[in-house]
């Protein structure tokens, strides 16, 4: 029976309405998260700028070294654990006891890796602080503070998977906002006593509060008394084995500008300049949080090849467009960017562009890697190491490692192999997904 064009149009409209409602629902969630994350990053950015403007260049150099080494410690204590938790959690997050087994397995492995990471990183931190003029007592204090800050971060890295996989955006927003606001309040309260040590101590307090909030939330939805699961352990250890060479190398690469300038520069002010410029890369933190809290967990849960392609194209396209926009702004308004950092850094216009360009390439490659690892598309990722090393060896004759511009240029070009490799991993991943569903 022919229902006629009017009836057909009505049926099509009725079928289209739920699709539009879902689209608007997801757009509203992402929009709300983006707004709150923008506020969070503004608070974090203000904290960073207050530290830059309040500390002498020597103190800020110490802060940059200590903060960089703390980040390195946290990354080395992960090496595939978070990727494994997200990947497995995408299948078991609705089962309270089963999810608890996974979380406790991840926590146990992170603590074991942290001991190994500390044995490697702490001597390097001590050497870099001594190399840049920190006294024995002060460098020892900074080492203790860095280790103290690592303890709550170990749990945060695993427990944060709970609200992410449950898509509890409100809880994520609350925890992030609380931590950023308390850090800013702490910096303002100690502004007259601010030093590298007090700035790191304030960060430790915020880490502890984040940990307590995450644990309280997780205890309500996950069985935190569940025993670690041997099968989960084997799967995560498999991630660690695959990712360990890459992760260790990436930790070094991610902090290479600070390493190089700390060792080769003739002045401690150069270390402070690299650290200050790096603060401007926080522009990309909103995107990073959206990826971590929304898109990567959604990508991990998705089992439809067509939808995977849409999410992937939207994420990478969005990150690329945002990065190009930031580069254009840095070209047009370099003075305004550098004014934020204070009078000690207004001469770094050329260095600003190098830093922003490097941050854009790393943001795109990082987004690709986050999506690839969420689906376990990591076979062959070891090629990142020889590809990057060959590139860097080729650069050595042409780079002045004692200058800020030199190390930033080195960092920029070093990001290219990672970008190319992640394109290849994504292509192969989609091919395997298509074959599996054919």
Please tell me about this protein's structure.
The protein contains 18 helices and no strands. It has helices spanning 4-54, 57-76, 81-92, 96-131, 136-159, 161-165, 169-189, 196-221, 230-254, 256-264, 268-280, 285-301, 305-332, 334-339, 349-374, 384-395, 404-414, 416-437. The chain starts with a helix and ends with a helix.
**Distance N to C terminus:** 35 Å
Provide the residue-averaged pLDDT: 84
Element-by-element helix/strand order: HHHHHHHHHHHHHHHHHH
Helix content: over 70%
Shape descriptor reads globular
Number of helices: 18
| Quaternary structure annotation | single chain
Could you outline the blueprint of secondary structure elements for this entry?
Layout: H1 4-54, H2 57-76, H3 81-92, H4 96-131, H5 136-159, H6 161-165, H7 169-189, H8 196-221, H9 230-254, H10 256-264, H11 268-280, H12 285-301, H13 305-332, H14 334-339, H15 349-374, H16 384-395, H17 404-414, H18 416-437
Helix pairs in contact: 1-7, 1-12, 2-4, 2-5, 2-8, 2-11, 3-4, 3-9, 3-12, 4-5, 4-9, 5-8, 7-8, 10-11, 10-17, 12-13, 12-15, 13-15, 15-17, 15-18, 16-18
